[in-house]
Amino acid sequence: MDAAVPARAHVVPEPRRADPGLIGLLGFVIATLTAQLAHLGVQNESAVFWVGAVFGGVVQVIAGMLSYFVGDDFHFIVYNAFGWYWICMPGFLLGGELGFFEVSGPARPLFSMMFAVLALGFTFAGATHNSALPLTLLLVAGGLTLEAVAAFAGAATLGTVGAWLLIGASALAFYMLVDKFAWRTMGRHIVPLGPPWIRRGDVPAEHP
């Protein structure tokens, strides 16, 4: 072999990883829709306990932790935040049924209000992705805020409006899921998500 000719490196391609957002969005859609149907009186809260704990909690936390391994900071914190929210909420329901560490008074609406603020904060980073994602987060923030205010003020109408906003967020999340699934499995976008609202800056190589 001619020494002047460099040996070709044998590069083994890295195996393609699945997108954790597929199960993250699925968990959000099913849990949010189930909870809001209960809020509107279509079904009782028993379904919220099981569906919320499994799909809203366990599934979203798994999606968040898998996002860590693909270096996706945004979905790592968003799915984990709302995954643990959905683990806490069924705990509130169970405590109320058993009278064990029962959460009453303003604690539950305050908890929801905190996550409304979180959703609003996540909107700015989400706006660098497309139009559908920040709109979904704004609907989540608005829905949780109205439901919390309704609980404080005893205004059932506000809670109903909040529930419909959250159902809208669930529908938009399903819309994004359809596009993501088509892109990952068929290699094509089948529905438009809209342009980003905020231009994405350069991500620094090292964070302080």
From TrEMBL:
It is found in: Membrane. It is a multi-pass membrane protein. The chain crosses the membrane at residues 21-42, 48-70, 82-101, 107-125, 132-155, 161-178. InterPro entries: Gpr1/Fun34/SatP-like, SatP. One of its GO terms (molecular function) is acetate:proton symporter activity. Pfam families: Gpr1_Fun34_YaaH (PF01184). The keyword Transmembrane applies. GO terms for cellular component: plasma membrane. One of its GO terms (biological process) is succinate transmembrane transport. Belongs to the acetate uptake transporter (AceTr) (TC 2.A.96) family. This is Acetate uptake transporter. It comes from Microbacterium hominis.
